[in-house]
Amino acid sequence: MKKYKNCQSCGMPKKMDDGGGGTEKDGSKSDKYCSYCYKGGDFFLKDEIDTTAKMQKMCIKMMKKRGMNGILAYILTRGIPRLERWKK
Asked: b/e map of 10-45 (b: 16 or more CB within 10 Å)?
């Protein structure tokens, strides 16, 4: 199975995930997703965050809340549409 360095939903580096990664239905750690996006084999806010544009907007808001410059936050979220969760 492929190992990912970044969450394949939001793009956050997995090493920055305080929760150590999301969890699958059986409680095991997810190889793809962070603990902010994925728990118990399902995505948080999956009905509200159902497009890449909504995910980008939410990520920018959270990064700015943590003190990051808005322009840098915008640049860092540009790759979200290419992540595994959003490929169709």
From this structure: bbbebeebeeebbbbeeeeebebbbbbbbbeeeeee
